[in-house]
Predict the structure.
Amino acid sequence: MSQTAERDPLVALRRDLHRRPEPAWREFYTTARIVEEIKRIGVDELHVGADAIAPERRSAVPDKKELDRWYAQAEDSLAEREGSDPAVLERLRGGTTGAVAVLERGEGPTIGLRVDIDALPREEADDEDHHPAAEGFRSIHDAMHACGHDAHATIGVGVLERIAESDFEGTFKLFFQPAEEVIGGGRAMAESGHLDDVDYLLAMHVGLDHPTGEIVAGIDDFLAVSHLNAEFRGESAHAGAAPNEGRNANQALATAVQNLYAIPRHADGGTRVNAGRIEGGSASNIVAEQASIQGEVRGETSELRDYMLDEAEDVIEHAAAMHDCESDVEIGPSAPSAKSDQALVDAVAAVAPDAAGVEHVVERAPLGGSEDATFLMREVQENGGLAAYVGVGTDHPGGHHTATFDVDEASLGIGVDVLADAVERIAELEPAK
Amino acid sequence: MSQTAERDPLVALRRDLHRRPEPAWREFYTTARIVEEIKRIGVDELHVGADAIAPERRSAVPDKKELDRWYAQAEDSLAEREGSDPAVLERLRGGTTGAVAVLERGEGPTIGLRVDIDALPREEADDEDHHPAAEGFRSIHDAMHACGHDAHATIGVGVLERIAESDFEGTFKLFFQPAEEVIGGGRAMAESGHLDDVDYLLAMHVGLDHPTGEIVAGIDDFLAVSHLNAEFRGESAHAGAAPNEGRNANQALATAVQNLYAIPRHADGGTRVNAGRIEGGSASNIVAEQASIQGEVRGETSELRDYMLDEAEDVIEHAAAMHDCESDVEIGPSAPSAKSDQALVDAVAAVAPDAAGVEHVVERAPLGGSEDATFLMREVQENGGLAAYVGVGTDHPGGHHTATFDVDEASLGIGVDVLADAVERIAELEPAK
Amino acid sequence: MSQTAERDPLVALRRDLHRRPEPAWREFYTTARIVEEIKRIGVDELHVGADAIAPERRSAVPDKKELDRWYAQAEDSLAEREGSDPAVLERLRGGTTGAVAVLERGEGPTIGLRVDIDALPREEADDEDHHPAAEGFRSIHDAMHACGHDAHATIGVGVLERIAESDFEGTFKLFFQPAEEVIGGGRAMAESGHLDDVDYLLAMHVGLDHPTGEIVAGIDDFLAVSHLNAEFRGESAHAGAAPNEGRNANQALATAVQNLYAIPRHADGGTRVNAGRIEGGSASNIVAEQASIQGEVRGETSELRDYMLDEAEDVIEHAAAMHDCESDVEIGPSAPSAKSDQALVDAVAAVAPDAAGVEHVVERAPLGGSEDATFLMREVQENGGLAAYVGVGTDHPGGHHTATFDVDEASLGIGVDVLADAVERIAELEPAK
Amino acid sequence: MSQTAERDPLVALRRDLHRRPEPAWREFYTTARIVEEIKRIGVDELHVGADAIAPERRSAVPDKKELDRWYAQAEDSLAEREGSDPAVLERLRGGTTGAVAVLERGEGPTIGLRVDIDALPREEADDEDHHPAAEGFRSIHDAMHACGHDAHATIGVGVLERIAESDFEGTFKLFFQPAEEVIGGGRAMAESGHLDDVDYLLAMHVGLDHPTGEIVAGIDDFLAVSHLNAEFRGESAHAGAAPNEGRNANQALATAVQNLYAIPRHADGGTRVNAGRIEGGSASNIVAEQASIQGEVRGETSELRDYMLDEAEDVIEHAAAMHDCESDVEIGPSAPSAKSDQALVDAVAAVAPDAAGVEHVVERAPLGGSEDATFLMREVQENGGLAAYVGVGTDHPGGHHTATFDVDEASLGIGVDVLADAVERIAELEPAK
């Protein structure tokens, strides 16, 4: 561990999480480590796992075998740590991850901060140019924190500690949300009941092409998104002796992929489509009897997203039928879009310039991507509260979701300061409801 | 274990092998079990693993991790068996599987029989209609004997025992060849040196749409075949925020698959192409940076196979370039075609009608598929010897390479009888060289 | 001809033009008819054909055979009209169509109005629901006014007449521009020299989903556009006897079309792609030796358009190479984007509400398509002048470019009134330069 | 005209036909010229046009406009010839082309010879290396004799003349069949009634990769074939302003073409597929509302052809549906396969070696393509007669159906001699029924 990490507990925590990235609903070690920090800080209420979320509202939960594998791995990792509490891990079993920490500090509004904690199922770069590799905290798992959620969790812990030590008056709730990358956890946390009394909610993200020292007070233009999984079922045959007896799922898949990307652009605004993960067949000399696509569609509005969904379903159905295969499309949950409320944007913009390290404050910027934080924002807004999504700039060498993504650790402290200051400033507002 | 299996050691052996199918170069348990049988029978020479093949001529050997996994599994399985010899397994480490058993019985020609022993990396059917499932010997591994090589190995053992107990005069060599399904073992065994003195060689296959009771004295029309593996390398990007920054390996793959199957038919004869196993990308919201195809091409002649190879390479190269990806094509080894020599066909046809259970003898029939036994046949033929490929009919519910393939165990004994009788009849021929 | 047409010379002119639609650079009859009207009105200067444009700056001019065919057809049509002047037609020979009419009315700024006059190469609907069919002025040519340029030319004539009869002081120039649909005429007219002294320029379009009675004072968000023509050259062969000897241009085309539509969406904004017209091969039993695509790409900015162009060229090159074909891509001219200047938007917005029939005035709206009027607008703006693009609402049953498109003739008078009033109002502005 | 042509009336006739190639059912000039020759020779019966065929059994007849265009062109061409009979042309109007000439010469069997006379809708090469271009008889029409039917018609005339001048006893019928290239005329001629009394039928083809001087006494292995035309109907839209409102027929077509060529190979034998002629859409900026494929499938047996047809229909239906388009598939007529009868093969093989110019006689060879002569052969064979298909070698620079195809005119005389000799030899056989 480098000098920086030794000196700075935030950096140390971030590196520990970075080294043990866990994808959606498998954040066993991650949640346990966060809970360890929460307990160290001391809070008035702590909800862990099934108590932090509405488990029946989870989406995209992996199968038991996969959950068990990651659970066992987390168990091993935690066994190496002194003083870790096996009871915490036990509450996460079956993929009910995440936590909600509550500080009750007298009269005043209830203010929430939501951070997400999951990693992506991809490999991390392993060359000397890649800081985590050079510094020895590259992922040791089959996954990677390629979107900065390790920094998010760390900043959450930092803000919790700052508020705990401050004169803040009111109630402060920190939401450590699992499974953002699969649009799987936002709804489950939004409907957990813990948002019911929240007057003001902030959510946050690092990077997004904003450099270290830049703060975006309010991010908008979330693309509505839906995941979709397609399954093609054909029939195998010997590829040499009986090619015509097969019903080729790989041909169905290839036809579908080509035509998914070719769904017509829409006059009403931006759309997206991705066949991100594909696989099919078993061996070179067997006609493939099965193939699958894990993909997604997005739109600048929910209508545009629905347009893409409808077209995608048509493509998949007929690509399968063309090759005499059956198909199933499973539509994942959709995250809606949301807007940052001006009063909160103003509060962030007011405090940000005074935070150490902040060089530039942008009032509003578009996301151009999707986020299931919108479930929590909408939950608060529909209850009469206000919400905003804050961008914390960080220099990142590779793009989000790529093997060389990394966060500039200098932005951890900036994020903590700006968000804690903003929470304190917002506490001066009248309760929203 | 059923009554039949209890009574009949051949059936018992076949079921044991069927239950523990091992794909190419991973036939650790399989080889060890065969060697156990060979030792029980007693032979004059026994070459195991690296001594049975030319290890440097192996093709399509899996990586160390994969080999180690199957090795460990075989170790576990053998540990359960009484009296298994750990030294045998040790000689197979690193994927040098297979065995050659030699009986020296005085003056006379040297006669070989080649059987293959590997399984396919596919799942086996699991319903009551499927005999191995109903009888409890369905595969317990991640693979399946979907082409009857469990029966081949068993028949090989049976013939060895029959010859050992007979009045046969001459030298008899039994070649238990690994890695046929990946065209990986034929050349390695052909160039092992053990074929150098073989005058007459028989190879054999069960099924091929010939029913139980039917024998094909000489099979011809082997399709020349080459495996090819294509790798596409692009660049990942966030599918929502920066779709244009990716270089999409999945799009390259889909374009390639569509166009591989669309390679023009050839006026000179039949061709085949299969993109049997495909995979690409890592998650639904990441533009895929990597994708791969495991495929193959075949042709009625080597020229036709080469035509398909050339076209396939063009398709892959330009499908990649179109999507700004790099590509590599790795061409696997090719198996040539071969002809069954008339003198041996005559010998088989002469003895077959008298074997118990044989109802019908076909003199010649086409294979319409590929086989790397052709390497061994050509080796013998080019040295001035003769070779033939014999078909042993068996009722099989599903097609070769499909989940419901199975062999009629009544054909095991028929195969042993016909082949042993043929070997004895061939021993009466003058040495070929 | 209906009562309306008899009574209203604008309606009669529009129907005459509608009945004889002529695509880009073939507006022989159309130009001659417009010139007839200009002469009837009487102007101070009249530039026809090669004098109205910079002929060497034309793009997408058809071949001589095609020009000659339409020229002969126009000759026949004009021969039926009394008093038409053969000398006018003669000046258009070779595809130098279009006209510029100039009214010089003393001191004051020079104000231009640009209208386009070409039709589309598509068939027109022929059922009773389609007004031109019901009223007997459906196209008699192999083309259709499916974008309302018949109305544009008519409104241009109407405005010229109104200004000629008014107290207008200054110079008024009416630009009847050919070949908008192929982005072929805008540059040629912009660089004709006739724009050099123009202080203020208006351009206009009917419809665009704005209903009759609605005026858009300033239209923006023109998509940058480039046409591209791809040619694939392979080699023919007998499809039955020698399929492998062909190099199939139709397969190259199909691969290209699939992948053109699948060019990744771009994070920076909207893009478009269309393979609008395709053809290839000659007969069902011949492997196609030639195929071609007439297509286009667009982008919200020129950079986005260039991104699409680059990707499209890659797709075409490698789709051809994959099938061993040669390819050529010919990039048509690109039209840039443009902005409507506020001073002119204000002028239009000021007069529009008082025009008869106007029910609603929208200050600004996006086009979401492309227009080569942007060449003329930019020419004026870069010289220090101002320009705006005005939308004249019209109820249209089918979308633009479809078989059932039609304009509500009530909008002809509205367009004339609003634009003439705007010209008079703009004349009160100081000269821009 | 060269010296050769002046000296040799067969060469002159072939060049005249070559210069005026006419595709299926448009052989107006061709039939009229042939009839002129028949009348010059003098026959006992002559059936022209609707009398020579069963008009209601014609397939793939073009529309009236197309027929009228070629008819008018033929009229013009014939007007230039002295002594041509307008009454003949009149009988062909509407696309009832072809002729049957009958010589009745006493007792003896009825022997038929069938030749086809249509050209292909493709362009001819125009460089000095191409003999017809160099010698001035290159096609002056929008078509080309790219399969040698000009030579077939010429040889037919030559044989008729030879038999007319010979001692032949029996009845000789010469069938000049139209529309072979579209599989359109074979059935119509087979069911005309003129075959009913034919004992022995010969058909013939030049070239097929057999050089000048080579004769194939019996050709076999005709591929069964079916033409199929697919029509895709979508909906047009402005490609820039409303891409999502279109239903893109060009995308449907591209998906179909890719997947047609990718129909799996069949274990039972050779298959073919070709999307020979495609077209779609109208302009670069309009989403295509219509597209079409003229294609064909073939198989070594009728079952294999039917397999291809079924798969092709599936592909087209679902490619359309995937893009929300409607589709129609029109299946053209199918030609069956046929076998050459040994007695006739023997007769040809017996006389061929003695014919001047013959250097090599092959008894049997495969066609590897399709032919609707099989309709006539089957008609005769099913009535108890015999039939054979004879190959007359000719050096041809380019492949059949390509722009540089040509016949070596030295083979015209060889063909006449061999076939006339064969007819005389066959006349010595007993009547078949």
In short: The interface with chain C takes residues 258-259, 261-262, 264-265, 267, 269-273, 368 of chain A (CB under 8 Å). Chain A has two domains: 3-222+336-426, 224-334.
